Amino acid sequence: MSLGSISAEAHTTLAIAMNRIGARSNTGEGGERPERYLNKDLRSSIKQVASARFGVDSSYLAHADMLQIKMAQGAKPGEGGELPGYKVTQEIARTRYSVPGVGLISPPPHHDIYSIEDLSQLIYDLKSANPLALVSVKLVSEVGVGVVAAGVAKARAVHITISGHDGGTGASSWTGIKHAGLPWELGIAETHQILVNQGTRSRVLLQVDGQIRTGRDVLIAALLGADEFAMSTAPLIVLGCTMMRKCHLNTCPVGIATQDPVLRAKFAGSPEHVINYLFLLAEEVRVYMSKLGVRRLEDLIGRTEFLKPIEFHKSEKASRLDLSGLLYNTKPIKFHPNWTSVMLDDEEEHDPVDPDMTPVESLIQILPHSRQLDAQLLKLAKHLIETPESTPIDATQSVVTFTGEITNEDRAALSTLSYAISVQFADRGLPPDRQIKVHLTGSGGQSFCAFLVHGVSVRLEGDANDYVAKGLSGGEVTIVPPTSLLQQGFKSEANIIVGNVCLYGATSGRLFLRGQAAERFCVRNSGAVVVAEGVGDHGCEYMTGGRAVILGRTGRNFAAGMSGGIAFLYDTDGGLEGPFLRKCNRELVDLEMMTSDNPYAPWLLSILKEFTHETGSEVGQKILEDWDNALKRFILVMPRDYRRALKEMEEKHSENTVIQSEPSHHIVELKAKQTAVDIEDMAAGDQSDSEAPLDKLRGFVRYARTKVGYRSAEERTKDWDEVYAHAEVRKGLKRQAARCMDCGVPFCQSYVGCPLGNLIPNWNDLVFKGDWHAAHLALAQTNNFPELTGRVCPAPCEGACVLGINSDPVTIKHIECAVADKAWENGWFRPSKEFLRPPTGRRIVIVGSGPAGLACADQLNQAGHEVTVVERRNKLGGLLRYGITTMKLDRRVLDRRLDLMRANGVKFVVNTRVGTVGDESGRRDLNADCQDPAQPVQEWRAAQLLREYDAMVLCLGATWPRDLNIPGRNLEGIHFAMSFLERWQRSQQKKHQSNGGIDNFRMNRMDDNAVSAIAKDKRIVIIGGGDTGVDCMATALRQGAKSIVNLELLPPPPPSRDPSENPWPEWPRVWRVEYGHAEVAVRFGRDPRKFSVITKEFLDNGSGAVGGLRIANVEWTKDPSNGRWKMHEVPDSEQLIECDLVLLALGYVGPENKLIEELGLAVTGPESLIATRPNESFATMISCVYAAGGKLKNNHHCRRGQSLVVHAINEGRQVAREVDLHLMGSTLLPGRGGVVKPRPTAFKSRV
User: Fold this and answer.
1) Which fold is adopted by the domain 698-826?
2) Cβ–Cβ < 8 Å for 1085, 1093
3) Where are the beta strands (DSSP E) in 918-1010?
4) What is the pLDDT of residue 993?
5) Residue by residue, what is the 3-state secondary structure of 493-510?
6) Domain spans of the chain?
7) The pLDDT of residue 659
8) What mean pLDDT is predicted for residues 1072-1095?
9) What share of the chain is helix, strand, coil (3-state, %, to 5)?
10) Which pLDDT score, from 0 to 100, does residue 332 have?
11) How many angstroms from the chain centroid is the CA of residue 930?
12) In sequence order, which residues have a C-beta less than 8 Å from that of residue 1221 and are 6 or more positions away?
């Protein structure tokens, strides 16, 4: 992961963690600034050299423990990379020697590697640029990688990384991620086997990467032959990455894959997170090793006998996989390599280093014989290098001059000299008062003057091979033909004087060539100034900075991928109408003829004078003699993005700024313009919310979460209508939808978010675009009753929203409710029997009309079955009707849904009990008999239903309340909260029918308990929090309660998440003010809640009714041995609370047991939940009987007890799918998330 693809904070944190534990971090291909690599705590010990050579200069290479040549990336082999301009900030531009705001391109290949010999040369170059570093080569796991690795080992690399296809960032192209590369298991196994057979395995370290996350992954990699293990995705996840898959858009909300300063400030990772992860990873590896009876990891490398393939029985094709080649058992490795051994093996024999030697003397001592030219220069310049910069040197000794001969056997000449200077003076090169002048004659070998640093100037009379001035780092190089040839009339402008790929990755400095250069001249030049008398094909390819002056012919494809820098072409063949127009690749550049008014004309004149004086070029002399006319023959090649960037830079300076060369250290910050071609970039949104277009790409940064949710407390407490401010919410809904980030891994619809798997990002985006009908269809795909969940669901999806990590989450619940209401308003919900499957003839009875039963019925009806829902109460809806107040759910919303289901063919039977009532013992619904005696309840025997129907689904709910058995529990005036709410809901129904009010409640009563439960003019105490307690507060308040107090055993939740106790994406246990709390606070001037309180006794008022409570304070402490919280009563904290009515909102234990016993169903656990079959089944142990309203727990045999409405709907949908599958043999009903799962295969194992 390079700096640029991820933020400086994330990159530095990884480096710090690795340095602390003695491991190694990798810079990636983005380079590293001196302030990092000069600090032993912040540096990345592995410096990567990739195809773009970003940030690769002499100092960068000199301060590395390992230099890694990245041949390709496992996630996108054969593809280049691209860093969008809006991610190229000032910091990134300084590091990569480019211009802020201008996009950067990584070429697909290394342009100095087209054969194994070329790779060998680059390895030699890097060894010359840092004799003390190991050289690694990163290869991609693909067919034949083992043969390539064998060649790499023979090319003297001592470290090989095999990269699997699963690696890479979210910025990789989707096609590359999905279809390119192979698993690392194949690559590492092949490489290890071939190296062992060739006898080179002991001198090469093998590393593997590609989504290695667990100790099991590490162990398998070792058994297949890996010595080392690299990982990046897992550490980034540990640091907070949420797999947004938006890395290329610069909008990472956790500050990891972004350069936006606002988002980077949200980064919350620390080195300790990574260290702890790696420690636990190592512990897991130790567990596996102990099971295998092995003490050292080295003893496992290549031991494939510990592996065995998994037997595939899912399909015929999978069963034919032959993994014998992968698990081939090679000969044992005689000697396991490590860093020390490969370093010693890599060095040639030399005399032992004297500890009293100076650094330069020690360097000379270890140089091989092939580096004698550098050794001579190091001896001459020893005093210039070792004298501190602050110590002045005598003027007579400040300049060192060397004259000698060179042959083409002298490869990478002067690179080691540059290394010694960089070790001492970093990227500054020699101090200004010191200079090394080298005069050579002959033929320079490959990589002549590679990585030459500032303060060293070289003049060569002769010619040079490929890669001249590769990675030029401030030095000056002049190459001219021999004087003897020139005296014979040699025409330099007509002959090639240097080979291919000159100035590859040059960062600064100057190159003068009296003669032509071959192909790929100035490829990826990012800061050097060069003048040549002609170039071959692909000149200035991928150039990002610097300036090139070409005084002669050019080859084809000039300026391909050129995103920065400037080129001047002297063309006497017609200018813009001549052949150069065909040779130039104008995809990224503009062409224009030079004139005397052009601001670059003075600089061009000065550099030509310098070039002509230095080289004696006849071409340069002729141009200068007729400058006014010659200037008009120059063609200026200017990248468009570069021109834009320079214009913005100019706007930041005064009008008197003199245009000069743009070295990286003078680059100023530019406004990062977002030019990504992505659907989110194109989104303008509906402008009805505001005059300006809405910004979808950065909406989560620009727009705040709306605080409007409820009507004012003063207004809503005067009625029983819904508390929601629907009209106000809708006004800013598209702005709120713009806050949705369309996460690559949307946790909002995951198992910790929406149990239904609602396609939340999909319909958020559709609402933003104003396509309400499509949003309705997307919502209906997963949710049968969105108008209900949009009102009563506590929105676990918002708790899991990625934005909620460090900001307010998206208002998902408001958007869902608005989409559903809009669908009803526009008539999109209507009877649609024509869209149902043809009748199947199957009959199904569902017991219970709560949310689970209704969802099950709706799904099975869509599948074509005949569905009957049985409800023992006189009204349908269960919890939705009697357990939730009208302030949260208007009963008209529920009734219109029930009417639609009737119209679609669902049969409802009310006032009907399945099974017998039985005696008073055992669990039973305490509210089941509170209905009007005028509507008697009939009984259907369960056995009869099993005979008449093909399947029975039990959606009984958890109706047995949890009690508080303390002294005084038998007093009058103590009621379960649900009894209080249900009786009032029934009273409300009567009130609507008779236009009565609260004062004629007695006239509409159905039993005496309802009278004692009325809260008017009473002091109310509600024991227990949660939604039910809040509903009781709001109901009692509207009934006219005299006072309301809410007692809670637990301590008050914190204002924000406690990451150690309640990490994201769990449901946030934080301080909330629900609608009931706010209403009580407005009416009585205080929040009704009292926390950390235990109720010890109900007190008698003298007439057999409750008159108060005796309570005490408690405190909670965590047991350090097991991490569990313990409660302790605070001494002398008892107190009395006066009250007239107590409501117990303590939750529910489980379902009533009469019908369960009559059917003979198995139960489990203290809650007596219905036991179901294993493998996540909803089927009970009785054939054709299913249970819903819960999810599978530990041993896959328990159904959920009390839970949320959204869980119940999901249970109903999933049990319907299983029933349909059982009855029909296949099903088109969707699973979670609206996914229609394929029919199970009929293939059976032959074993």
Assistant:
1) Fumarate Reductase Iron-sulfur Protein; Chain B, domain 2 (1.10.1060)
2) no
3) 938-940, 951-954, 960-961, 974-976
4) 54
5) HHCEEECCCCCCCCCEEE
6) 8-314, 398-649, 698-826, 843-917+929-962+1148-1224, 974-990+1011-1144
7) 41
8) 95
9) 35, 15, 45
10) 78
11) 54
12) 1227, 1229
The two three-digit tokens of residue 85, written as one number:
């301009």
CA separation for the pair 479, 532 (Å, rounded): 10
Which one of 2.30.30.240, 3.30.470.30, 3.20.20.370, 3.50.50.60 gives the CATH number of domain 974-990+1011-1144?
A: 3.50.50.60
Q: From CA 516, how far away is CA 532, in angstroms rounded?
A: 6
For residue 761, say if its preceding peptide bond is cis, omega within 30 degrees of 0.
Answer: no
Strands 496-498 and 1185-1187: unpaired
Token pair 């999109």: residue: 828
Query: How does 710-735 read in b/e, with b if 16+ C-beta sit within 10 Å?
Result: bbebeebbeebebbbbeeebbebbbb
- Mean pLDDT lowest for which of 421-430, 705-714, 797-806, 1165-1174? 1165-1174
778 Cα distance to chain centroid: 25
Burial class (CB in 10 A: 0-12, 13-18, 19+), 487: exposed
- Selecting from 3.50.50.60, 2.40.30.60, 2.60.40.10, 3.20.20.70, what CATH number does the domain 843-917+929-962+1148-1224 have? 3.50.50.60
For residue 926, give the amino acid letter: L
pLDDT at 675: 37
The string of pLDDT tens digits covering residues 962-1003 is 899 999 999 999 999 988 988 888 877 766 555 444 343 333
Burial class (CB in 10 A: 0-12, 13-18, 19+), 84: buried
CA distance 624 to 605: 8
Q: Per-residue confidence at 291, pLDDT binned at 50, 70, 90?
A: very high
Q: Angle at Cα 507 formed by Cα 522 and Cα 67, nearest 5°?
A: 100
In this structure, which amino acid lies at residue 1184?
C
pLDDT over threshold 60, residue 776: yes
Helix, strand or coil, per DSSP, at residue 1093: strand
Q: What DSSP string runs through 48-107?
A: EE-TT-TT--HHHHHT-SEEEEE---TTSTT--EEE-GGG--HHHHHHHTS-TT--EEE-
Spell 165-190 as b/e; 16+ CB within 10 A means b: bbbbbbbbbeebbeebbbbbbbbbbb
Distance of alpha carbon 1176 from the chain centroid: 30
CA–CA separation, 89 and 258 (whole Å): 10
901 has pLDDT over 80: yes
DSSP state of 584: B
* Top-tier CATH class for 8-314: alpha beta
Structure tokens at 595: 């004139």
Task: Look at residue 8 in the predicted model and tell me its pLDDT.
Answer: 93
Shortest CA distance to 937 belongs to which of 909, 902, 905? 909
β-partners of residue 47 are 67
Q: Is residue 835's pLDDT more than 90?
A: no
CATH of span 398-649? 2.160.20.60
Q: Is 825 exposed, middle or buried (0-12, 13-18, 19+ CB in 10 A)?
A: exposed
pLDDT band at 1103 (very low <50, low <70, confident <90, very high): very high
Per-residue DSSP letter, 1172: B
Strands (E), 585-712: 589-593, 634-639
Whether residue 1247 has pLDDT greater than 50: no
Sign of CA dihedral 894, 896, 897, 903: positive
Of the candidate ranges 216-220, 794-798, 814-818, 1013-1017, the one whose mean pLDDT is the lowest: 1013-1017
Q: How confident is the model at residue 678 (pLDDT cuts 50, 70, 90)?
A: very low
The pTM score is 0.84
Cβ atoms within 10 A of the Cβ of 1149, count? 19
